[in-house]
Amino acid sequence: LASAWTARGLVKGDRVLVCMKVGFGLYAALVALWRIGAVAVFPEPALGHFGLRHAATTTAPNAYLADSWYRFLKPFLGELRRIPMTLPASAPSSGTSSAPLADLAPDAPALISFTSGSTGQPKAIVRSHRLLAAQNDAVARLLRPAGGPTVDLVAFPVFVLAELALGNTAVLPDWTLGRPDAVT
After folding, report:
1. Which residues of the chain have pLDDT under 50?
2. Cα angle for residues 146, 152, 158 (degrees, 5° grid)
3. Phi/psi of residue 11, each to 5°?
4. pLDDT digit string, tens, across residues 57-83
5. CA 64 → CA 15, 18, 90, 163, 177, distances in Å?
6. What is the reported pLDDT for 41?
7. Exposure string (b/e) for 81-104, b if CB count within 10 Å is 16 or more?
8. Which of 47, 156, 160, 169 is the least crowded, having the fewest Cβ atoms under 10 Å away?
9. Which 3-state string (H, E, C) describes the chain?
10. How many Å apart are CA 177 and CA 45, to the nearest integer?
11. How far apart are CA 161 and CA 28, in angstroms?
12. Closest to 37 (Cα-Cα) out of 112, 86, 125, 100
């Protein structure tokens, strides 16, 4: 993915609006974006189209990365149409090489997410690579397997990153993140 996206012009520091279902493809995309040094921008799922448009307006992303039905939204939302590049959610099966690992400062932005907006406009939260590493270390202490890799049911998607770093298998429930109240 990183090689395919750099061939399309994605570079270190570019912001990428990510609209993907939580699953293998999302985590592969995150690894590819961070390998390049790009910043993943995640709209608040509970805010629906408003959150998506707000994230696009607030962060002025250089690229749009979507899967599922999200990939069909760009022509219909002006805020998305202004994003200059659309990235494919999967890479060609052959003909690509490994993209070099970006040289990043620890405080370089890794991802941007948003608050729910319960006290006003949703606010952008910039997380650096250093912060994500510290968060991963803290969570890993809680998840570290005593006798080797484990299989864990993960309800909070960011924990999957720690699970993968530990060599654990993360099982994700099939639910809509924007509607946790609908889980039965």
Report:
1. none
2. 110
3. -130, 170
4. 999 999 999 998 888 989 898 999 999
5. 9, 6, 13, 27, 20
6. 97
7. eebeeebebebeeeeeeebeebeb
8. 156
9. CHHHHHHCCCCCCCEEEEECCCCHHHHHHHHHHHHHCCEEECCCHHHHHHHHHHHHHHHCCCEEEECHHHHHCHHHCHHHHCCCEEECCCCCCCCCCCCCCCCCCCCCEEEEEECCCCCCCCCEEEEEHHHHHHHHHHHHHHHCCCCCCCEEECCCCCHHHHHHHHCCEEECCCCCCCCHHHCC
10. 6
11. 11
12. 100
Residue type at position 157: P
Q: What's the token pair of residue 70?
A: 């999200």
Structure tokens given for 42: 């995640």
Please give the single-letter amino acid code of residue 106: P
